[in-house]
Amino acid sequence: MTIIDISPDKDGGVMKEIIKEGIGDETPSNGSKVTVHYTGTLLDGTKFDSSRDRNEPFQFKLKRGAVIKAWNIGVATMKKGEIALLTCAPEYAYGKNGSPPKIPPNATLKFEIEMIDWKAEDLSPEKNGSIERYPIVQGKDFSFPEKGGLVDVHLTGMYNGKVFEDRDVKFPLEEGEEYDVIEGVEKALEKFKRGEKSKLKIKSQYAFKDTGKPEFGIPPNATQTQKMLLSKKERLEQAKICKERAATYIKANKYSLAIKMYKKVYSYLLRYSCEMDNKDTIKTENDVFTSDEDALALSVHLNLALCYLKTNQNVSAKNACNDALQLSPQNEKALFRRGQAYLALASPEIAIKDFQEVLKIQPKNTAAVKQIEVCNNLIKKQLSKEKRLYANMFDKFAQEDKQKEEEKLQDQPDVMCGALGEWGQEERPGGRDATAFEKENPNILMLNANGTDEFQNM
């Protein structure tokens, strides 16, 4: 059999000899879960490991860091049923350190590998195999399209070997339904790189479900195949496209959708700016963009504030205005909309300051004049309400004090009632009976001792 160099740099690092041809044309793709048997030996024939001796096939995910570099390269070229011998240089195996005690430093290794089977990379959210990817051409970078971003793809749809669609289509990710793009394609595109070409196997759950597609001859619950080539736009261009879509949603009074689009615009701006600066971290809102990016970011914040006001999300509206004012401290719209947010948050005494700042910038802004009048009226109403509240409060306290005083007086004895002032038998000198005068005048006590009408000398 012919021995070929399959190392990427053609440096002889991984040499492959096919011992038994495989079946078909398909090979496993990155992320596929492969099942193999293997036997590893040193150059002198010493065996250091074998899955056959354990009678247990070995499984791993291709190009996910689970095996040595030579395996990721060699196994990716193998078809089902194929048996191949890989000769692996140290830099593609265990390097200068080796893997003691069985593999010495700087060892060249030989692996006889049998490809038993593999499962394609599973892109389905549930990891149930409903969306499988088989790469044909690898992508050019490590960035992926984002939800809401515009993607430019060529789709070839097949069922039972027959092509039912073959077209170019551009659409915003997450809006594929509007362009007759099935859900499984959209889910897969989230993991596509620029320039990638892959085959997808999509089950009915993410395709035409239990209704099928009669016009394409696709029955209910059918699995279909899609081949796709993705070309990804620059982030700044994506940001501008999303901004235009957001503006369309505002005109249609679809403010929630507009908010989503504007958030994506700003996300693109942050990431784009990060890429331009070759930074590993995404910029924060306090970082400085270029002038063009500044203008776009400012527009995003202002329009987000508008959408938040329309949907009564007043705290978010205030925050969006604050972000805009960081970019443009004397921005008339930002100040005006922040004032509106404060008004909606029942803070006219704060809102009026923003409207007054607007007038400093543009004295002829009649809308700000009207809003100041509204603020003053609200402030007056609040003061009047507070006065009434305090007045009622003091009246209530005074009434309570008066009631407590009356209750206190009621608890004291009445000196003008009862036995007091009405002389009893025991109070007369000698305990005598009341005289006729005393009986007619019960509140008067005669002081003479003998009870006559005569008074004693004092």
From TrEMBL:
<protein>
    <recommendedName>
        <fullName>peptidylprolyl isomerase</fullName>
        <ecNumber>5.2.1.8</ecNumber>
    </recommendedName>
</protein>
<dbReference type="InterPro" id="IPR019734">
    <property type="entry name" value="TPR_rpt"/>
</dbReference>
<keyword id="KW-0677">Repeat</keyword>
<feature type="domain" description="PPIase FKBP-type">
    <location>
        <begin position="148"/>
        <end position="234"/>
    </location>
</feature>
<dbReference type="Pfam" id="PF00254">
    <property type="entry name" value="FKBP_C"/>
</dbReference>
<dbReference type="InterPro" id="IPR050754">
    <property type="entry name" value="FKBP4/5/8-like"/>
</dbReference>
<dbReference type="InterPro" id="IPR046357">
    <property type="entry name" value="PPIase_dom_sf"/>
</dbReference>
<dbReference type="Pfam" id="PF13181">
    <property type="entry name" value="TPR_8"/>
</dbReference>
<feature type="repeat" description="TPR">
    <location>
        <begin position="332"/>
        <end position="365"/>
    </location>
</feature>
<keyword id="KW-0802">TPR repeat</keyword>
<feature type="domain" description="PPIase FKBP-type">
    <location>
        <begin position="31"/>
        <end position="119"/>
    </location>
</feature>
<dbReference type="GO" id="GO:0003755">
    <property type="term" value="F:peptidyl-prolyl cis-trans isomerase activity"/>
</dbReference>
<dbReference type="InterPro" id="IPR011990">
    <property type="entry name" value="TPR-like_helical_dom_sf"/>
</dbReference>
<dbReference type="InterPro" id="IPR001179">
    <property type="entry name" value="PPIase_FKBP_dom"/>
</dbReference>
<keyword id="KW-0697">Rotamase</keyword>
<keyword id="KW-0413">Isomerase</keyword>
